[in-house]
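A common beginner's mistake is to predict each chain separately and then try to dock the pieces by hand. The better habit, illustrated here, is to supply every component at once so that their relative placement is modeled jointly.
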Amino acid sequence: MSAIYTSLGDAGTAPETAASALAAAGAGPAAPSRRARLAAKGVRLPPPGGRLRPIVMRVLPPLLGLALLVLVWQILALRNPGFPTPLETWQEAAKLFADPFYRKGPNDQGIGWNIVASLRRVALGFGLAALVGIPLGFLIGRFSFVYGMFSPLISLLKPVSPLAWLPIGLLVFKAADPAAIWAIFICSIWPMIVNTAVGVQRVPQDYLNVARVLDLSEWKVVTRILLPSVLPYMLTGVRLAIGTAWLVIVAAEMLTGGVGIGFWVWDEWNNMNVPHILIAIGVIGVVGLLLELALVALAKAFSYEEK
Amino acid sequence: MAAKFIDISKVDMRFGKFHALSDINLSVEQGEFITLIGHSGCGKSTLLNLIAGLNRPSSGVLVCSGREIAGPAPERAVVFQNHSLLPWLTCFENIHLAVERVFGAKESRAQLDERSWRALELVGLTAAGGKRPNEISGGMKQRVGIARALSMEPKVLLMDEPFGALDALTRAHLQDELMRIVAATGATVIMVTHDVDEAVLLSDRIIMMSNGPAATIGDIVKVRLERPRDRLALAQDPLYLDYRTSVLEFLYQRQGRPAQRFAA
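With all components supplied together, the output reads:
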Protein backbone atom coordinates (compact mmCIF):
# COMPACT_ATOMS: atom_id res chain seq x y z
CA MET A 1 0.00 0.00 0.00
CA SER A 2 2.71 2.45 0.96
CA ALA A 3 4.53 1.53 -2.22
CA ILE A 4 1.65 2.86 -4.26
CA TYR A 5 1.56 6.11 -2.30
CA THR A 6 5.30 6.52 -2.58
CA SER A 7 5.25 5.95 -6.28
CA LEU A 8 2.43 8.47 -6.47
CA GLY A 9 4.66 11.02 -4.82
CA ASP A 10 7.52 10.30 -7.19
CA ALA A 11 5.23 9.97 -10.17
CA GLY A 12 6.49 13.13 -11.77
CA THR A 13 9.98 11.73 -12.19
CA ALA A 14 9.49 8.00 -12.66
CA PRO A 15 5.97 6.75 -13.34
CA GLU A 16 5.92 3.03 -12.61
CA THR A 17 2.38 2.01 -13.40
CA ALA A 18 -0.31 3.36 -15.62
CA ALA A 19 -2.55 3.99 -12.63
CA SER A 20 -0.01 6.06 -10.74
CA ALA A 21 0.83 8.01 -13.86
CA LEU A 22 -2.83 8.80 -14.30
CA ALA A 23 -3.19 9.91 -10.71
CA ALA A 24 -0.10 12.07 -11.00
CA ALA A 25 -1.43 13.68 -14.12
CA GLY A 26 -4.62 14.57 -12.25
CA ALA A 27 -2.89 16.06 -9.21
CA GLY A 28 -0.09 17.69 -11.14
CA PRO A 29 3.51 16.67 -10.51
CA ALA A 30 4.45 20.04 -9.02
CA ALA A 31 1.88 19.85 -6.20
CA PRO A 32 1.24 16.31 -4.95
CA SER A 33 -1.81 15.96 -2.67
CA ARG A 34 -1.46 16.19 1.11
CA ARG A 35 -2.15 12.52 1.33
CA ALA A 36 0.65 11.71 -1.04
CA ARG A 37 3.12 14.01 0.69
CA LEU A 38 2.39 12.51 4.09
CA ALA A 39 2.60 8.99 2.72
CA ALA A 40 5.96 9.80 1.18
CA LYS A 41 7.24 10.72 4.64
CA GLY A 42 6.21 7.29 5.82
CA VAL A 43 3.10 8.42 7.71
CA ARG A 44 0.55 5.63 7.90
CA LEU A 45 -2.80 6.90 6.71
CA PRO A 46 -6.26 5.49 7.22
CA PRO A 47 -7.88 4.22 4.04
CA PRO A 48 -9.67 6.87 1.95
CA GLY A 49 -13.19 7.88 2.87
CA GLY A 50 -12.43 7.44 6.59
CA ARG A 51 -15.15 9.75 7.82
CA LEU A 52 -17.90 7.99 5.90
CA ARG A 53 -16.95 4.55 7.13
CA PRO A 54 -18.51 4.48 10.63
CA ILE A 55 -21.90 5.46 9.23
CA VAL A 56 -21.70 2.86 6.50
CA MET A 57 -20.59 0.24 9.00
CA ARG A 58 -23.55 1.02 11.20
CA VAL A 59 -26.16 0.98 8.46
CA LEU A 60 -24.79 -1.75 6.23
CA PRO A 61 -24.93 -4.84 8.51
CA PRO A 62 -28.61 -4.41 9.50
CA LEU A 63 -29.54 -3.79 5.86
CA LEU A 64 -27.63 -6.89 4.78
CA GLY A 65 -29.35 -8.92 7.50
CA LEU A 66 -32.73 -7.72 6.30
CA ALA A 67 -31.81 -8.49 2.70
CA LEU A 68 -30.76 -12.01 3.71
CA LEU A 69 -34.12 -12.54 5.44
CA VAL A 70 -36.02 -11.38 2.38
CA LEU A 71 -33.86 -13.61 0.16
CA VAL A 72 -34.45 -16.73 2.26
CA TRP A 73 -38.13 -15.87 2.40
CA GLN A 74 -38.27 -15.47 -1.39
CA ILE A 75 -36.58 -18.84 -1.92
CA LEU A 76 -38.96 -20.52 0.55
CA ALA A 77 -41.96 -18.90 -1.10
CA LEU A 78 -40.90 -20.03 -4.57
CA ARG A 79 -40.53 -23.61 -3.38
CA ASN A 80 -43.83 -23.71 -1.44
CA PRO A 81 -46.79 -22.62 -3.53
CA GLY A 82 -48.95 -21.86 -0.44
CA PHE A 83 -46.39 -19.42 0.98
CA PRO A 84 -46.65 -15.75 -0.10
CA THR A 85 -43.57 -13.97 -1.49
CA PRO A 86 -42.21 -10.84 0.25
CA LEU A 87 -43.67 -8.67 -2.49
CA GLU A 88 -47.17 -10.17 -2.20
CA THR A 89 -47.02 -9.74 1.57
CA TRP A 90 -45.90 -6.14 1.21
CA GLN A 91 -48.78 -5.36 -1.17
CA GLU A 92 -51.22 -7.01 1.21
CA ALA A 93 -49.81 -4.99 4.13
CA ALA A 94 -50.21 -1.76 2.15
CA LYS A 95 -53.88 -2.63 1.62
CA LEU A 96 -54.33 -3.54 5.29
CA PHE A 97 -52.76 -0.36 6.62
CA ALA A 98 -54.63 1.85 4.16
CA ASP A 99 -57.67 1.38 6.43
CA PRO A 100 -56.56 0.11 9.84
CA PHE A 101 -59.57 1.36 11.79
CA TYR A 102 -62.72 -0.12 10.24
CA ARG A 103 -65.40 -2.05 12.04
CA LYS A 104 -67.56 -4.67 10.34
CA GLY A 105 -68.98 -6.56 13.27
CA PRO A 106 -67.29 -7.92 16.38
CA ASN A 107 -65.03 -10.40 14.58
CA ASP A 108 -64.02 -8.28 11.61
CA GLN A 109 -62.22 -5.12 12.60
CA GLY A 110 -59.19 -3.28 11.25
CA ILE A 111 -55.70 -4.25 12.37
CA GLY A 112 -55.42 -0.93 14.23
CA TRP A 113 -58.34 -1.84 16.50
CA ASN A 114 -56.83 -5.25 17.14
CA ILE A 115 -53.53 -3.71 18.23
CA VAL A 116 -55.34 -1.18 20.41
CA ALA A 117 -57.37 -3.95 22.05
CA SER A 118 -54.23 -5.92 22.85
CA LEU A 119 -52.43 -2.86 24.17
CA ARG A 120 -55.41 -2.02 26.37
CA ARG A 121 -55.33 -5.49 27.95
CA VAL A 122 -51.58 -5.29 28.47
CA ALA A 123 -51.88 -1.81 30.01
CA LEU A 124 -54.60 -2.92 32.42
CA GLY A 125 -52.96 -6.17 33.52
CA PHE A 126 -49.59 -4.52 33.69
CA GLY A 127 -50.84 -1.48 35.59
CA LEU A 128 -52.62 -3.62 38.16
CA ALA A 129 -49.48 -5.74 38.54
CA ALA A 130 -47.42 -2.59 39.18
CA LEU A 131 -49.98 -1.38 41.71
CA VAL A 132 -49.73 -4.64 43.67
CA GLY A 133 -46.20 -5.80 42.83
CA ILE A 134 -44.15 -2.68 43.56
CA PRO A 135 -45.48 -2.05 47.10
CA LEU A 136 -45.27 -5.78 47.82
CA GLY A 137 -41.67 -5.78 46.55
CA PHE A 138 -40.90 -2.88 48.91
CA LEU A 139 -42.29 -4.77 51.89
CA ILE A 140 -40.45 -7.95 50.95
CA GLY A 141 -37.19 -6.08 50.56
CA ARG A 142 -37.52 -4.02 53.74
CA PHE A 143 -38.80 -6.61 56.23
CA SER A 144 -37.14 -10.00 56.45
CA PHE A 145 -40.29 -11.44 57.99
CA VAL A 146 -42.32 -10.58 54.90
CA TYR A 147 -39.45 -11.88 52.78
CA GLY A 148 -39.61 -15.18 54.63
CA MET A 149 -43.36 -15.34 54.07
CA PHE A 150 -43.41 -14.67 50.33
CA SER A 151 -40.04 -15.85 49.04
CA PRO A 152 -40.98 -19.58 48.84
CA LEU A 153 -44.35 -18.78 47.26
CA ILE A 154 -42.76 -16.61 44.60
CA SER A 155 -40.08 -19.21 43.85
CA LEU A 156 -42.83 -21.79 43.43
CA LEU A 157 -45.20 -19.74 41.29
CA LYS A 158 -42.76 -17.75 39.16
CA PRO A 159 -41.81 -20.61 36.79
CA VAL A 160 -45.47 -21.41 36.02
CA SER A 161 -46.57 -20.33 32.56
CA PRO A 162 -49.10 -17.52 32.93
CA LEU A 163 -51.35 -19.36 30.47
CA ALA A 164 -51.83 -22.05 33.08
CA TRP A 165 -53.64 -19.37 35.12
CA LEU A 166 -56.01 -18.55 32.27
CA PRO A 167 -58.63 -21.19 33.21
CA ILE A 168 -58.62 -19.87 36.78
CA GLY A 169 -59.30 -16.42 35.35
CA LEU A 170 -62.13 -17.75 33.21
CA LEU A 171 -63.59 -19.54 36.20
CA VAL A 172 -63.44 -16.53 38.50
CA PHE A 173 -64.38 -13.75 36.07
CA LYS A 174 -66.64 -15.80 33.80
CA ALA A 175 -65.56 -13.74 30.79
CA ALA A 176 -62.73 -13.90 28.28
CA ASP A 177 -61.53 -10.30 28.48
CA PRO A 178 -60.81 -10.14 32.23
CA ALA A 179 -59.26 -13.59 32.03
CA ALA A 180 -56.72 -12.37 29.46
CA ILE A 181 -55.98 -9.32 31.65
CA TRP A 182 -55.57 -11.69 34.56
CA ALA A 183 -52.95 -13.70 32.64
CA ILE A 184 -51.05 -10.49 31.90
CA PHE A 185 -51.30 -9.49 35.55
CA ILE A 186 -49.81 -12.80 36.65
CA CYS A 187 -46.92 -12.73 34.20
CA SER A 188 -46.03 -9.07 34.90
CA ILE A 189 -46.14 -9.20 38.65
CA TRP A 190 -43.15 -11.50 39.27
CA PRO A 191 -40.41 -9.38 37.73
CA MET A 192 -41.84 -6.29 39.44
CA ILE A 193 -41.91 -7.89 42.89
CA VAL A 194 -38.52 -9.53 42.56
CA ASN A 195 -36.69 -6.52 41.12
CA THR A 196 -38.19 -4.05 43.58
CA ALA A 197 -37.31 -6.34 46.49
CA VAL A 198 -33.74 -6.80 45.25
CA GLY A 199 -33.45 -3.02 44.79
CA VAL A 200 -34.58 -2.38 48.35
CA GLN A 201 -32.16 -4.97 49.69
CA ARG A 202 -29.31 -3.42 47.73
CA VAL A 203 -29.75 0.15 48.96
CA PRO A 204 -26.13 0.97 49.87
CA GLN A 205 -25.48 0.75 53.61
CA ASP A 206 -23.78 4.16 53.37
CA TYR A 207 -27.07 5.83 52.49
CA LEU A 208 -28.86 4.05 55.30
CA ASN A 209 -26.09 5.16 57.66
CA VAL A 210 -26.63 8.74 56.49
CA ALA A 211 -30.30 8.30 57.30
CA ARG A 212 -29.42 7.01 60.76
CA VAL A 213 -26.88 9.70 61.53
CA LEU A 214 -29.25 12.43 60.36
CA ASP A 215 -31.99 10.63 62.27
CA LEU A 216 -34.42 11.08 59.36
CA SER A 217 -38.11 10.29 59.76
CA GLU A 218 -39.40 7.09 58.14
CA TRP A 219 -41.20 9.22 55.53
CA LYS A 220 -37.99 11.02 54.58
CA VAL A 221 -36.11 7.71 54.49
CA VAL A 222 -38.66 6.37 52.00
CA THR A 223 -38.94 9.46 49.79
CA ARG A 224 -35.35 10.71 49.87
CA ILE A 225 -33.35 7.49 50.12
CA LEU A 226 -35.29 4.30 49.39
CA LEU A 227 -37.41 5.39 46.42
CA PRO A 228 -34.65 7.11 44.44
CA SER A 229 -32.18 4.31 44.98
CA VAL A 230 -34.69 1.57 44.17
CA LEU A 231 -36.10 3.31 41.10
CA PRO A 232 -33.54 1.94 38.61
CA TYR A 233 -34.19 -1.62 39.81
CA MET A 234 -37.92 -1.02 39.68
CA LEU A 235 -37.70 0.19 36.10
CA THR A 236 -35.71 -2.90 35.13
CA GLY A 237 -38.53 -4.98 36.58
CA VAL A 238 -41.07 -2.95 34.65
CA ARG A 239 -39.10 -3.46 31.45
CA LEU A 240 -38.85 -7.21 31.92
CA ALA A 241 -42.54 -7.30 32.75
CA ILE A 242 -43.67 -5.45 29.65
CA GLY A 243 -41.59 -7.77 27.45
CA THR A 244 -43.21 -10.85 28.95
CA ALA A 245 -46.65 -9.28 28.94
CA TRP A 246 -46.45 -8.60 25.22
CA LEU A 247 -45.33 -12.20 24.61
CA VAL A 248 -48.18 -13.60 26.68
CA ILE A 249 -51.00 -11.45 25.31
CA VAL A 250 -50.72 -13.01 21.83
CA ALA A 251 -51.03 -16.53 23.22
CA ALA A 252 -53.77 -15.57 25.66
CA GLU A 253 -55.87 -13.93 22.97
CA MET A 254 -55.52 -16.97 20.73
CA LEU A 255 -57.23 -18.91 23.50
CA THR A 256 -59.81 -16.36 24.59
CA GLY A 257 -60.84 -14.90 21.20
CA GLY A 258 -62.56 -11.55 20.72
CA VAL A 259 -60.65 -8.59 19.33
CA GLY A 260 -56.88 -8.46 19.64
CA ILE A 261 -53.74 -9.09 17.65
CA GLY A 262 -53.38 -12.65 18.99
CA PHE A 263 -56.91 -13.56 18.08
CA TRP A 264 -56.43 -11.89 14.72
CA VAL A 265 -53.49 -14.23 13.96
CA TRP A 266 -55.59 -17.22 14.87
CA ASP A 267 -58.55 -15.97 12.86
CA GLU A 268 -56.40 -15.43 9.77
CA TRP A 269 -55.01 -18.93 10.22
CA ASN A 270 -58.57 -20.25 10.11
CA ASN A 271 -59.12 -18.15 6.97
CA MET A 272 -55.86 -19.57 5.55
CA ASN A 273 -54.69 -15.97 5.00
CA VAL A 274 -50.95 -16.53 5.36
CA PRO A 275 -49.84 -12.99 4.29
CA HIS A 276 -51.88 -11.55 7.15
CA ILE A 277 -50.22 -13.89 9.63
CA LEU A 278 -46.79 -12.78 8.40
CA ILE A 279 -47.86 -9.13 8.66
CA ALA A 280 -49.09 -9.76 12.21
CA ILE A 281 -45.72 -11.24 13.16
CA GLY A 282 -44.03 -8.09 11.89
CA VAL A 283 -46.51 -5.82 13.67
CA ILE A 284 -46.17 -7.69 16.98
CA GLY A 285 -42.41 -7.38 16.68
CA VAL A 286 -42.51 -3.66 15.96
CA VAL A 287 -44.95 -2.88 18.80
CA GLY A 288 -42.86 -4.96 21.24
CA LEU A 289 -39.73 -3.11 20.17
CA LEU A 290 -41.42 0.28 20.61
CA LEU A 291 -42.63 -0.64 24.11
CA GLU A 292 -39.12 -1.72 25.04
CA LEU A 293 -37.56 1.47 23.61
CA ALA A 294 -40.06 3.67 25.44
CA LEU A 295 -39.22 2.01 28.76
CA VAL A 296 -35.48 2.20 28.13
CA ALA A 297 -35.90 5.94 27.54
CA LEU A 298 -37.94 6.20 30.75
CA ALA A 299 -35.28 4.31 32.72
CA LYS A 300 -32.58 6.58 31.33
CA ALA A 301 -34.49 9.67 32.40
CA PHE A 302 -34.65 8.38 35.97
CA SER A 303 -31.16 6.99 36.31
CA TYR A 304 -28.31 8.85 37.91
CA GLU A 305 -24.64 8.07 37.59
CA GLU A 306 -23.03 6.75 40.71
CA LYS A 307 -19.92 8.31 42.14
CA MET B 1 -9.31 21.99 82.71
CA ALA B 2 -12.72 21.68 81.14
CA ALA B 3 -15.12 18.97 82.19
CA LYS B 4 -15.10 15.66 80.36
CA PHE B 5 -17.23 16.20 77.31
CA ILE B 6 -17.08 12.69 75.94
CA ASP B 7 -16.35 9.91 78.36
CA ILE B 8 -15.64 6.38 77.27
CA SER B 9 -15.12 3.88 80.03
CA LYS B 10 -14.35 0.16 79.97
CA VAL B 11 -15.75 -0.29 76.50
CA ASP B 12 -15.56 -3.76 74.95
CA MET B 13 -16.79 -4.61 71.50
CA ARG B 14 -17.32 -8.09 70.12
CA PHE B 15 -18.75 -9.04 66.74
CA GLY B 16 -19.89 -12.59 67.34
CA LYS B 17 -16.73 -14.45 68.31
CA PHE B 18 -14.41 -11.68 67.12
CA HIS B 19 -13.12 -9.49 69.92
CA ALA B 20 -12.61 -6.13 68.24
CA LEU B 21 -12.04 -3.68 71.08
CA SER B 22 -11.02 -4.34 74.63
CA ASP B 23 -11.11 -2.06 77.64
CA ILE B 24 -11.17 1.34 75.94
CA ASN B 25 -11.00 4.27 78.35
CA LEU B 26 -10.85 7.78 76.98
CA SER B 27 -12.20 11.18 77.80
CA VAL B 28 -12.33 14.11 75.45
CA GLU B 29 -12.63 17.77 76.36
CA GLN B 30 -14.86 20.24 74.61
CA GLY B 31 -13.11 21.83 71.64
CA GLU B 32 -10.41 19.20 71.54
CA PHE B 33 -9.13 17.73 68.27
CA ILE B 34 -8.47 14.02 68.68
CA THR B 35 -7.14 11.61 66.07
CA LEU B 36 -7.31 7.84 66.28
CA ILE B 37 -4.40 6.18 64.50
CA GLY B 38 -3.35 2.57 64.08
CA HIS B 39 -2.86 -0.17 61.55
CA SER B 40 -5.87 -1.18 59.50
CA GLY B 41 -8.07 -3.62 61.35
CA CYS B 42 -7.17 -2.18 64.74
CA GLY B 43 -10.73 -1.11 65.40
CA LYS B 44 -10.37 2.65 65.09
CA SER B 45 -13.43 2.90 62.83
CA THR B 46 -15.29 0.60 65.20
CA LEU B 47 -14.56 2.99 68.05
CA LEU B 48 -15.74 5.93 65.95
CA ASN B 49 -18.97 4.08 65.07
CA LEU B 50 -19.54 3.46 68.77
CA ILE B 51 -19.23 7.17 69.50
CA ALA B 52 -21.51 7.92 66.53
CA GLY B 53 -24.03 5.49 68.00
CA LEU B 54 -24.17 3.40 64.84
CA ASN B 55 -23.17 0.40 66.97
CA ARG B 56 -23.70 -0.32 70.65
CA PRO B 57 -20.80 -1.63 72.74
CA SER B 58 -20.86 -5.20 74.09
CA SER B 59 -20.02 -3.80 77.50
CA GLY B 60 -18.95 -0.46 78.98
CA VAL B 61 -20.43 3.00 78.72
CA LEU B 62 -20.07 5.92 76.32
CA VAL B 63 -21.27 9.31 77.50
CA CYS B 64 -21.57 12.50 75.48
CA SER B 65 -22.23 15.78 77.34
CA GLY B 66 -23.72 13.99 80.30
CA ARG B 67 -25.98 11.60 78.39
CA GLU B 68 -25.32 7.99 77.47
CA ILE B 69 -24.93 7.42 73.75
CA ALA B 70 -27.89 5.22 72.83
CA GLY B 71 -28.00 5.71 69.07
CA PRO B 72 -27.08 8.07 66.27
CA ALA B 73 -28.03 11.70 66.81
CA PRO B 74 -27.46 14.94 64.90
CA GLU B 75 -25.43 16.29 67.83
CA ARG B 76 -22.71 13.83 66.76
CA ALA B 77 -22.32 14.45 63.04
CA VAL B 78 -20.37 11.98 60.93
CA VAL B 79 -18.23 12.67 57.87
CA PHE B 80 -17.90 9.35 56.07
CA GLN B 81 -14.79 8.19 54.25
CA ASN B 82 -16.63 7.92 50.94
CA HIS B 83 -18.57 11.17 51.49
CA SER B 84 -21.93 9.32 51.23
CA LEU B 85 -23.75 12.13 49.49
CA LEU B 86 -27.06 11.11 47.97
CA PRO B 87 -26.42 11.10 44.21
CA TRP B 88 -29.98 12.10 43.25
CA LEU B 89 -29.89 15.32 45.28
CA THR B 90 -27.87 18.45 44.51
CA CYS B 91 -25.13 19.50 46.91
CA PHE B 92 -27.48 22.11 48.35
CA GLU B 93 -30.29 19.57 48.79
CA ASN B 94 -27.93 17.12 50.46
CA ILE B 95 -27.09 19.74 53.07
CA HIS B 96 -30.65 20.99 53.28
CA LEU B 97 -31.82 17.48 54.20
CA ALA B 98 -29.65 17.63 57.32
CA VAL B 99 -30.51 21.26 58.14
CA GLU B 100 -34.23 20.57 57.79
CA ARG B 101 -34.02 17.66 60.21
CA VAL B 102 -32.23 19.61 62.93
CA PHE B 103 -33.77 23.08 62.63
CA GLY B 104 -36.96 22.42 60.60
CA ALA B 105 -39.23 22.56 63.63
CA LYS B 106 -38.03 25.97 64.85
CA GLU B 107 -37.09 27.98 61.79
CA SER B 108 -38.71 29.32 58.64
CA ARG B 109 -37.99 28.05 55.14
CA ALA B 110 -35.87 31.08 54.37
CA GLN B 111 -33.80 30.59 57.50
CA LEU B 112 -33.21 26.93 56.62
CA ASP B 113 -32.11 27.84 53.10
CA GLU B 114 -29.85 30.51 54.57
CA ARG B 115 -28.23 27.94 56.86
CA SER B 116 -27.63 25.53 53.99
CA TRP B 117 -25.99 28.24 51.90
CA ARG B 118 -23.86 29.33 54.86
CA ALA B 119 -22.59 25.77 55.26
CA LEU B 120 -21.66 25.65 51.58
CA GLU B 121 -19.97 29.00 51.92
CA LEU B 122 -17.93 27.70 54.86
CA VAL B 123 -16.28 25.12 52.59
CA GLY B 124 -16.11 27.56 49.66
CA LEU B 125 -18.59 25.77 47.44
CA THR B 126 -21.46 28.22 46.99
CA ALA B 127 -21.01 27.96 43.23
CA ALA B 128 -21.51 24.17 43.27
CA GLY B 129 -24.77 24.28 45.26
CA GLY B 130 -26.93 23.37 42.27
CA LYS B 131 -24.71 20.56 41.07
CA ARG B 132 -25.15 16.85 41.67
CA PRO B 133 -22.36 14.96 43.45
CA ASN B 134 -21.32 13.17 40.25
CA GLU B 135 -20.65 16.54 38.61
CA ILE B 136 -17.97 17.63 41.08
CA SER B 137 -14.52 16.33 42.02
CA GLY B 138 -13.70 13.96 44.88
CA GLY B 139 -12.27 16.76 47.01
CA MET B 140 -15.38 18.87 46.50
CA LYS B 141 -17.63 15.97 47.44
CA GLN B 142 -15.71 15.50 50.66
CA ARG B 143 -16.09 19.23 51.39
CA VAL B 144 -19.85 18.98 50.85
CA GLY B 145 -19.82 16.03 53.26
CA ILE B 146 -18.05 18.21 55.83
CA ALA B 147 -20.44 21.09 55.15
CA ARG B 148 -23.39 18.74 55.68
CA ALA B 149 -21.96 17.62 59.01
CA LEU B 150 -21.17 21.18 60.13
CA SER B 151 -24.55 22.53 59.03
CA MET B 152 -26.18 20.58 61.85
CA GLU B 153 -24.11 22.54 64.37
CA PRO B 154 -23.04 19.31 66.04
CA LYS B 155 -21.44 19.13 69.43
CA VAL B 156 -18.93 16.65 68.01
CA LEU B 157 -17.66 16.14 64.50
CA LEU B 158 -16.76 12.50 63.85
CA MET B 159 -14.61 11.90 60.78
CA ASP B 160 -13.74 8.47 59.43
CA GLU B 161 -10.63 8.87 57.28
CA PRO B 162 -12.26 11.80 55.56
CA PHE B 163 -9.32 12.53 53.28
CA GLY B 164 -8.19 8.95 52.74
CA ALA B 165 -9.45 8.72 49.17
CA LEU B 166 -7.98 12.04 48.02
CA ASP B 167 -4.69 12.90 46.33
CA ALA B 168 -1.95 14.45 48.46
CA LEU B 169 -2.40 18.05 47.27
CA THR B 170 -6.17 18.07 47.71
CA ARG B 171 -5.72 16.42 51.09
CA ALA B 172 -3.31 19.12 52.28
CA HIS B 173 -5.69 21.80 51.08
CA LEU B 174 -8.64 20.27 52.91
CA GLN B 175 -6.60 19.77 56.08
CA ASP B 176 -5.82 23.50 56.12
CA GLU B 177 -9.45 24.28 55.48
CA LEU B 178 -10.54 21.96 58.29
CA MET B 179 -8.13 23.66 60.72
CA ARG B 180 -9.57 27.04 59.73
CA ILE B 181 -13.18 25.83 60.21
CA VAL B 182 -12.43 24.16 63.53
CA ALA B 183 -10.71 27.32 64.77
CA ALA B 184 -13.70 29.39 63.68
CA THR B 185 -16.41 27.12 65.12
CA GLY B 186 -14.61 25.68 68.15
CA ALA B 187 -15.89 22.22 67.22
CA THR B 188 -14.84 19.08 69.03
CA VAL B 189 -13.43 16.66 66.49
CA ILE B 190 -12.63 12.98 66.62
CA MET B 191 -10.99 11.79 63.45
CA VAL B 192 -9.78 8.39 62.27
CA THR B 193 -6.68 8.47 60.13
CA HIS B 194 -3.75 6.32 59.07
CA ASP B 195 -1.64 9.29 58.01
CA VAL B 196 1.00 10.21 60.59
CA ASP B 197 1.58 13.74 59.27
CA GLU B 198 -2.14 14.42 59.22
CA ALA B 199 -2.42 13.26 62.82
CA VAL B 200 0.41 15.46 64.09
CA LEU B 201 -0.64 18.49 62.06
CA LEU B 202 -4.27 18.49 63.19
CA SER B 203 -4.42 16.96 66.64
CA ASP B 204 -4.31 18.13 70.19
CA ARG B 205 -3.95 14.49 71.15
CA ILE B 206 -3.13 11.42 69.08
CA ILE B 207 -4.69 8.20 70.33
CA MET B 208 -2.55 5.31 69.12
CA MET B 209 -4.32 1.98 68.98
CA SER B 210 -2.65 -1.40 69.41
CA ASN B 211 -3.21 -4.11 66.86
CA GLY B 212 -6.33 -6.25 66.99
CA PRO B 213 -7.90 -8.55 67.89
CA ALA B 214 -8.86 -7.14 71.27
CA ALA B 215 -7.31 -3.82 70.28
CA THR B 216 -6.99 -1.14 72.90
CA ILE B 217 -5.40 2.26 73.35
CA GLY B 218 -1.65 1.69 73.23
CA ASP B 219 -0.39 5.16 73.91
CA ILE B 220 -1.42 8.80 73.69
CA VAL B 221 0.71 11.62 72.33
CA LYS B 222 -0.19 15.14 73.43
CA VAL B 223 0.73 17.53 70.64
CA ARG B 224 1.79 20.86 72.13
CA LEU B 225 2.23 22.86 68.94
CA GLU B 226 0.99 26.44 68.77
CA ARG B 227 -2.12 27.15 66.69
CA PRO B 228 -2.63 28.27 64.02
CA ARG B 229 -0.28 25.71 62.58
CA ASP B 230 1.49 26.15 59.30
CA ARG B 231 2.53 23.00 57.49
CA LEU B 232 5.58 24.60 55.86
CA ALA B 233 6.97 26.04 59.09
CA LEU B 234 6.26 22.79 60.93
CA ALA B 235 8.21 20.74 58.40
CA GLN B 236 11.40 22.20 59.94
CA ASP B 237 10.18 22.30 63.53
CA PRO B 238 12.15 19.84 65.74
CA LEU B 239 9.17 19.45 68.07
CA TYR B 240 6.96 18.46 65.13
CA LEU B 241 9.55 15.96 63.97
CA ASP B 242 9.75 14.52 67.49
CA TYR B 243 6.01 13.94 67.60
CA ARG B 244 6.12 12.43 64.17
CA THR B 245 8.93 10.09 65.16
CA SER B 246 7.21 8.94 68.32
CA VAL B 247 4.04 8.07 66.39
CA LEU B 248 6.06 6.26 63.74
CA GLU B 249 7.97 4.37 66.43
CA PHE B 250 4.74 3.28 68.01
CA LEU B 251 3.29 2.12 64.71
CA TYR B 252 6.31 0.37 63.25
CA GLN B 253 8.37 -0.80 66.23
CA ARG B 254 5.98 -1.41 69.07
CA GLN B 255 2.99 -2.37 66.96
CA GLY B 256 4.68 -3.47 63.73
CA ARG B 257 2.95 -6.43 62.26
CA PRO B 258 4.87 -9.70 62.08
CA ALA B 259 4.35 -9.79 58.33
CA GLN B 260 5.77 -6.28 57.99
CA ARG B 261 8.72 -6.97 60.24
CA PHE B 262 9.95 -9.77 58.01
CA ALA B 263 9.12 -8.04 54.79
CA ALA B 264 11.96 -6.67 52.66
